[in-house]
Amino acid sequence: MKRASLLVFSFYLLLLLAGCDKNVYYAAERDVDERGWNMGDAAIFDFTIDDTLDVYNFFFDLRNSVSYDKANAFFFISTTFPDGTTAYDTLECPLANVQGQWLGRRTGRYVDNRYYFRRHVIFPHTGTYTVAVTHGMRDTNVVGFKSVGLRIERVSAQ
To answer: How far apart, in Å, do the first and last CA atoms of the chain sit?
Structure first.
């Protein structure tokens, strides 16, 4: 009986959680090599846009180890449009405050952060877009990142 109750509770919890992300259009995460993320190794995200009238918000997700020894991180982000043109951006991600306390949600050895990357984006073309993310730190090989992610949400009509 307890097992059946737990199963029903889990099912409803899953439905509730799934309903919370109804505006998520795209979400993906790429793991980073534990031995270090080389500056030349890009995390690649491909997604398709079918409607050029929808409005989106872009988020950048980062998971770093608590052994990462810097208070911030920089990333170079290139977006290639379906027509072949490419836009380039730089994103600074603060990871710790001036006292050295982590800013994100800490779970065990890792800290998760989500950053607004772009707000109210309207895509100019339908088709496949490719986003490539590389770190922009001074060291060629950076140790301490676990994963990077890209999340795109539709902006709700108010």
So the answer is: 44
pTM of the model: 0.82
Q: Which two tokens stand for residue 98?
A: 């001036």
Domains along the chain? 23-154 (2.60.120)
Strands 43-49 and 37-38: unpaired
Task: Pinpoint the alpha helices (H) of 31-95.
Answer: none
Strand partners, 52: none
What H or E segment, with its residue span, contains residue 7?
helix 2-20
Distance CA 132, CA 47 (A): 12
Q: Which of 130, 53, 45, 118 is nearest to 84 (CA)?
A: 130
Whether 115 contacts 60, CB under 8 Å = yes
> Each residue's pLDDT tens digit in the chain (158 positions)?
555 444 444 444 344 444 456 789 999 999 999 889 999 999 999 999 998 999 999 999 999 999 999 999 999 999 999 999 999 999 999 999 999 999 999 999 999 999 999 999 999 999 999 999 999 999 999 999 999 999 999 997 55
